[in-house]
Structure to design on (73 residues):
């Protein structure tokens, strides 16, 4: 990966992540969707899975540093 980019992956459990997001009104519909996707074997691009009764996924951050070109004028 070029030096101007960095990536971090963090395995997460859905309920733990929703506690971080802290928006109780969104939990039930999101839980239903991600559980259905994970149960169907769809990773949804984030490594969704069900382990026991827990919904798991990979929370990925990407940081890209850019530099404005200097004025050549």
């Amino acid at each position: 990966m070029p030096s101007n980019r960095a990536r971090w992956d963090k395995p997460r459990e859905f309920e733990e992540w929703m506690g971080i997001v802290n928006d109780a009104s969104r939990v039930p519909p999101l839980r239903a969707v991600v559980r259905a996707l994970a149960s169907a074997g769809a990773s949804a691009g984030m490594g969704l899975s069900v382990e026991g009764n827990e919904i798991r996924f990979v929370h990925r951050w990407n940081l890209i540093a850019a530099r404005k070109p200097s004025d050549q004028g």
